[in-house]
């Protein structure tokens, strides 16, 4: 495959026939959060909620959220594509269709969904399509995956509010995908809480500089 062909593959979603086959077994990952020690895969307190957010490289995005009061636990992984149980190397080819995502489990009594969404919109550029800065490919697309209808509607409302703010500053249309949560595949152990393990590691987060006008309530 030529460089141009490889580039094109990374910039477009693969069809089921093109996608890598993946595997039946899950990829091994950590059992607990490196910072908080809380479980990554469930047994979370009753009444806590979840959302999946994709905003480019998941290393910096995860740290952004685990530092927020009211967020119980975070984990990184892959979602929105075709390949079951993909590896990191497979997602980087663009042939799984998955985006790098952060799972956020939070206490809605301490932090609202709108607060999380405002942070999401402000801390990356949701207008870039299949890239985020120098990180290029479907893996780095902007995405919000929700676990109930009310949260999906709230996410769409926040998108519309932020789009108006972006247009007022002369910026382009938001390309963020908003959909019901698909299967979330946990990433490998070394990716979990990567910037806590590697404080000088890469963080590609860069916002537009436009504040999000959505209400912090709700």
Automatic annotation (TrEMBL):
InterPro entries assigned: Met_Sox_Rdtase_MsrA_dom (IPR002569), MsrA_MetSO_reductase (IPR050162)
Keyword Oxidoreductase among UniProt keywords: yes
Keywords: Oxidoreductase
Similarity annotation: Belongs to the MsrA Met sulfoxide reductase family.
A Pfam family per the record: PMSR
Region feature Disordered, mapped onto this chain: 1-20
EC code(s) of this entry: 1.8.4.11
Encoding gene (name): msrA
Single annotated GO MF: peptide-methionine (S)-S-oxide reductase activity
GO cellular component: cytoplasm
Domain of life of the organism encoding this protein: Bacteria
Ranges of residues in domain Peptide methionine sulphoxide reductase MsrA: 51-203
Protein name, per record: Peptide methionine sulfoxide reductase MsrA
Physiological role: Has an important function as a repair enzyme for proteins that have been inactivated by oxidation. Catalyzes the reversible oxidation-reduction of methionine sulfoxide in proteins to methionine.
Catalytic residues in the record: 57
Upper classification of the organism: Bacteria, Pseudomonadati, Pseudomonadota, Alphaproteobacteria, Hyphomicrobiales
Gene Ontology biological process terms in this record: cellular response to oxidative stress
Catalytic activity: L-methionyl-[protein] + [thioredoxin]-disulfide + H2O = L-methionyl-(S)-S-oxide-[protein] + [thioredoxin]-dithiol; [thioredoxin]-disulfide + L-methionine + H2O = L-methionine (S)-S-oxide + [thioredoxin]-dithiol
